[in-house]
């Protein structure tokens, strides 16, 4: 019996070794970097400097609070940290809402008896199957103000061309649309599997009891899908929150003038364009903590083991 | 009364089809765009025409990609990297997931949470320490180094999928095999693994995709022209002077075809492998 127990641990060992080397070691290394002054000027011999970067982040966060109360709205709006922080949350929330409504909607439609259902399902999976960097660059081309197909279609119906990458609002919308396109098939596939595992008898019983389609959806479909959708929601939140590729590639590194950053793209630019490694490392520790906090929150709300 | 119900049913079908078609157009439109661009002759790259097939359509870009660029070298490197990632990923995740599903040991919950936590740290910040580590291990500028990094990238999701799926397989089956004289290892390989086919397929597909589409890590770890994978090869078409858009589009499609084919072939497993695990997880 004991031997079998030990065997199971041997099964786990190779995975843990790989994760320790490629994820855990760099993570700890990052903690150390976040405590140093590693940047362009101290590239060869970074010095330990303690919690300086974290203090700087804390000052950024606290800055609007130091003002008198009536000035708060304008102080928060002018604060770079809150702009990026707010944008990250808006980005995550908008994407998830659309991923889930479109994905769930598509799954409900495809779960009916439709002719050519298999073909539709295959076509709807395409955005997921294409490599992400190819899709992102394709969308960037489609949003091109002069030659992009989207503005040309708008011109066909007589609408004014949209300045996709010169206004903060539109430059935020462009990667959001791209990411909605990229992400809904994953939810669709997961929801389809969930729908197929709901016993039909439940619906028949509800129909006999006089429940309409809306009632059936909220009382049967949604609760039965919860165990499938909840882990997808947790993973989706983490992946969207930390999605560097789409914003970076679609807005061409944060057009216009670094106004489209979310937390991860901001960190990426700080580290690899301005070589502020120490600062970027401290900031990514902060991102990590925020995500831990959010996932904890989900766990509480769901009152159910997500893991 | 009956006629009215039939009309209502017909209207419903119209609605359902309209909605499905809207979604399909949304999903397929960018793909059609890439096809259109790949067919454009060199002098029309910045055209404002809306036709899907441009006037004077040509397959020139495909010819250039396949004959004048080292496309097959990129393809070979990508295949090697992606298949190795899939193979190692499946091996590690199927074993690790089993340990986490059946094992009852101290720290099991912590390992599961830790695996989820690996997803929370911004991955790009791990690049620099990873590079330094790989340099010490002499894995910089080798395909093996890239494979190790990709396996680790795909592993957390794969372990979760495998663990969730194993949870749905009654442990009694495994016990029965042990009583019938199987060793624990052969009970695993002969009973549990064959029953987990859908989850194994997902794991393989996900690991393969990670290797096939990844760009950043490859960019940092690989320097030699000879070792370039497809994403790096496509990126090399963006030169400082001009972007070879038609070639890039043609190349993109050539890159997409194998993965899309894989996805469609495995469509059936996709639904069962991803969800079954979490239904009872």
Low-confidence residue ranges of chain B:
none
State the total count of DSSP E strands of chain B.
0
Helix content of chain A: over 70%
Q: In the CATH hierarchy, what is the architecture of the domain at 94-258 in chain A at level 2? A: Orthogonal Bundle
Helix share of residues of chain B? over 70%
By DSSP, the count of extended strands of chain A is 0
CATH fourth-tier homologous superfamily of the largest domain in chain B: MetI-like
What is the CA–CA distance across the termini of chain B?
47 Å
Shape of chain A: globular
Q: Report the radius of gyration of chain A as a whole number of Å.
A: 24 Å
Nearest-integer average pLDDT of chain B = 86
Describe what you observe in this structure.
The complex is a heterodimer of chains A (307) and B (281). Helix content of chain A is 73%, strand content 0%. In chain A, helix 4 packs across helix 10 (213-241), helix 8 crosses helix 10 (213-241) and helix 12 (263-272) packs antiparallel against helix 13. The longest helix of chain A has 33 residues, at 2-34. Chain A has helices spanning 2-34, 52-62, 72-78, 80-110, 117-129, 132-142, 149-156, 168-196, 200-208, 213-241, 245-250, 263-272, 277-302. The mean pLDDT of chain A is 86.
């Amino acid at each position: 019996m004991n031997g079998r127990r030990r065997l199971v641990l041997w099964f786990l060992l190779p995975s843990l070794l790989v994760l320790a080397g490629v994820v855990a070691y760099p993570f700890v290394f990052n903690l150390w970097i976040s405590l140093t002054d590693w940047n362009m000027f101290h590239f060869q011999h970074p010095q330990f400097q303690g919690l300086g970067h974290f203090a700087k982040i804390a000052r950024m966060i606290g800055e609007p609070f130091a003002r008198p109360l009536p000035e708060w709205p304008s102080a928060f709006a002018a604060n770079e940290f809150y702009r990026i922080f707010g944008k990250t949350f808006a980005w995550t929330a908008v994407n998830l809402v659309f991923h889930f409504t479109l994905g769930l909607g598509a799954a409900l439609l495809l779960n009916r008896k439709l002719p050519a259902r298999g073909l539709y399902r295959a076509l709807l999976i395409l955005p997921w199957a294409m490599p992400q960097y190819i899709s992102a660059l394709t969308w960037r081309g489609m949003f091109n103000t002069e030659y992009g197909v989207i503005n040309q279609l708008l011109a066909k119906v007589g609408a004014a061309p949209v300045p996709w990458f010169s206004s903060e609002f539109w430059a935020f919308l462009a990667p959001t649309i791209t990411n909605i396109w990229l992400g809904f098939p994953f939810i669709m596939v997961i929801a389809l599997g969930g729908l197929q595992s709901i016993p039909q008898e439940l619906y028949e019983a509800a129909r006999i009891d006089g429940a309409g389609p809306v009632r059936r959806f909220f009382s049967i479909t949604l609760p039965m899908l919860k165990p499938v959708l909840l882990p997808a929601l947790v993973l989706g939140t983490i992946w969207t929150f930390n999605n560097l590729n789409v914003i970076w590639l679609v807005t061409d590194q944060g057009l216009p003038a670094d106004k489209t950053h979310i937390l991860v793209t901001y960190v990426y630019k700080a580290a690899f364009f301005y070589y502020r490694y120490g600062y970027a490392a401290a900031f990514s520790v902060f991102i990590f903590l925020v995500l831990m906090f959010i996932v904890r929150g989900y766990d509480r709300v769901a009152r159910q083991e997500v893991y | 009364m009956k006629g009215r119900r039939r009309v209502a049913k017909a209207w419903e079908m119209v609605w359902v089809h309209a909605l499905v078609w809207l979604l399909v157009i949304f999903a397929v439109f960018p793909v059609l765009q890439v096809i259109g661009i790949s067919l454009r002759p060199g002098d029309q790259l910045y055209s404002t025409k809306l036709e899907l097939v441009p006037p004077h359509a040509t397959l020139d870009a495909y010819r250039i990609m396949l004959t004048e660029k080292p496309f097959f070298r990129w393809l070979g490197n990508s295949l090697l990297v992606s298949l190795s990632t899939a193979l190692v990923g499946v091996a590690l995740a199927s074993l690790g997931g089993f340990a986490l599903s059946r094992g009852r040991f101290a720290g099991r919950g912590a390992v599961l949470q830790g695996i989820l936590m690996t997803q929370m740290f911004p991955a790009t910040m791990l690049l620099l320490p990873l590079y330094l580590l790989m340099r010490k291990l002499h894995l910089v500028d080798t395909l093996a180094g890239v494979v190790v990094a990709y396996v680790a990238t795909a592993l957390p999701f794969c372990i979760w999928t495998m663990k969730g799926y194993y949870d749905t397989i009654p442990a009694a089956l495994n016990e029965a095999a042990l009583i019938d004289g199987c060793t624990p290892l052969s009970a695993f390989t002969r009973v549990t693994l064959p029953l987990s086919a859908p989850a194994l397929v997902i794991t393989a597909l996900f690991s393969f995709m990670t290797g096939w589409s990844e760009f950043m890590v490859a960019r940092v770890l690989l320097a030699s022209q000879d070792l370039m994978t497809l994403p790096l090869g496509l990126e090399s078409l963006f030169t400082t002077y001009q972007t070879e858009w038609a070639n890039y589009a043609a190349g993109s499609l050539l890159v997409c075809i194998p993965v899309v084919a894989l996805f469609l072939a495995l469509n059936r497993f996709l639904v069962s492998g991803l969800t079954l695990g979490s239904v009872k997880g």
